[in-house]
Write a structure and sequence with these properties.
Layout (H helix, E strand, L loop, with lengths): L1 E2 L2 H27 L5 H18 L3 E2 L2 H34 L11 E5 L3 E2 L2 E2 L1 H16 L4 E5 L10 H11 L7 E4 L5 H16 L6 E6 L3 H8 L6 E6 L3 H27 L2
Helix pairs in contact: 1-2, 2-8, 3-8
Length: 267
């Protein structure tokens, strides 16, 4: 039976209350606004973590159970500190790249896919394409590579949808290349490099990436694996939905870093 323990009990009760609040907000957003996304799932998961963490601040008349609660409290405290430090560090890097706007002239521009709806680009992808059109109109000698393959339950590639959108909005078909095999950001940039070297047989070119602001840090980081010089121009994401993408990007960067560490270990 758990009993009160002055200050620690108050801390635990506060954590449980905050956790329950996170879970409720996450469920409301998931079922009424965004659906089940990285952001809403993470909010609910964080809430459950806080509920469990808060419960470890209680005590019991059972000494063995008290020891287990204390041990669990220390483990969760360590995980919490690691999570907070890594979140602040990664989000700082992400937010430093939000306003990327490299006003340089390059021969090749790569616009990264962001999902399609039927045969139309998603809202996020439209923002990237509109930013691409601005650049292409200002730099008439640039060629753009629309990069994106088949997603789930689609009958047309992202690259083809992007190409159609660019042509409808005044970009000459001769200026648009398609990379239609990729399904991840790494593949976007790796397969684009292969496409360019196969077509032109030249050294790896300098590229300019056009992608969403929240995605720019990770996209550039990946691009440096394949290109000697990388520039970027960000398309803006509405602040109202930025938290969802910011949390998702945190998890994506963690996955990217874990992959790179594994490559070093097994090199």
């Amino acid at each position: 039976m758990l009993v009160r323990r002055n200050l620690n009990s108050k801390i635990g009760l506060g954590l449980v209350s905050i956790g329950v609040g996170f879970v409720m907000i996450g469920m409301v957003l998931a079922f009424n606004v965004f659906g089940i996304t990285f952001g809403t799932f993470s909010l609910i998961t964080s809430g459950l973590f806080l509920v469990l963490y808060g419960m470890t601040f209680g005590t019991s008349v059972n000494k063995n159970l008290n020891y287990k609660l204390l041990l669990l409290n220390r483990i969760l405290s360590l995980l919490l500190v690691i999570g907070l430090v890594s979140f602040i560090w990664i989000e700082t890097l992400v937010f430093q790249s939000l306003k990327s706007n490299d006003n340089v002239r390059v021969n090749y521009v790569v616009v990264l896919g962001a999902g399609i709806q039927g045969e139309e680009p998603s809202i996020t992808l439209k923002r990237r394409l509109d930013k691409s059109i601005e650049y292409l109109n200002a730099n008439p000698n640039a060629t753009i590579i629309a990069s994106g393959g088949f997603g789930k339950q689609v009958i047309i590639t992202e690259a083809e949808v992007m190409k159609r959108y660019l042509i409808v909005h005044g970009i000459s078909e001769s200026r648009v290349l398609k990379e239609e095999n990729s399904t991840t950001s790494d593949e976007n940039l790796r397969y684009t490099r292969l496409l360019l070297t196969q077509l032109y047989g030249a050294e790896v070119p300098t590229i300019l990436i056009i992608t969403s602001d929240y995605h720019m840090f990770r996209a550039k980081h990946i691009a440096y694996r394949y290109y000697p010089v990388v520039y970027g121009i960000s398309s803006e994401t509405p602040r109202a939905i930025m938290i969802n993408y910011a949390i998702r990007e945190y998890l994506a960067v963690l996955k990217m870093l874990a992959f790179e560490v594994s490559r070093i270990v097994y090199w």
